[in-house]
Amino acid sequence: MNERTSWGELRGRRLAEPGAAEAYEATRLAFELGRAVRQMREDRGWSQSELAAAADMTQSAVARFEAGGTVPTLPVLERLARALDAELQVRISPRAPAA
């Protein structure tokens, strides 16, 4: 008979596949960026259409970005930051040494 696999086991196997961890990390980053932009937009009381106009984008592109559905390029991030009167900061920092 078939044994059932738990979600944790399945997730672990999938993430062990070549390229899966990198794709998962890219998706996480896209989601976090989208969430941050959506929060800034909502804090200003703007609709997606208003942000899109200010950033020279379409409303559907803003919606996809906010949902984490696309991994943005640096020029797109710059346009969104400029439209939101925000500073785009891209940095690479060393990790803390292992104890």
UniProtKB/TrEMBL annotation:
Q: Which SMART domains match?
A: HTH_XRE
Read off the Gene3D superfamilies from this record.
lambda repressor-like DNA-binding domains
Q: Which Pfam family, just one, is annotated for this protein?
A: HTH_31
GO MF annotation list: DNA binding; DNA-binding transcription factor activity
Question: What UniProt keywords are attached to this protein's entry?
Answer: DNA-binding
**GO annotation, cellular component aspect:** cytosol
Q: What SUPFAM superfamilies does the annotation carry?
A: lambda repressor-like DNA-binding domains
Residues annotated as domain HTH cro/C1-type:
37-91
Task: Output the superkingdom of the source species.
Answer: Bacteria
PANTHER family to which the protein is assigned, alphabetical: HTH-TYPE TRANSCRIPTIONAL REGULATOR (PTHR46797), METHYLPHOSPHONATE SYNTHASE (PTHR46797:SF1)
Q: What is this protein called?
A: HTH cro/C1-type domain-containing protein
Q: Which organism is it from?
A: Planotetraspora thailandica
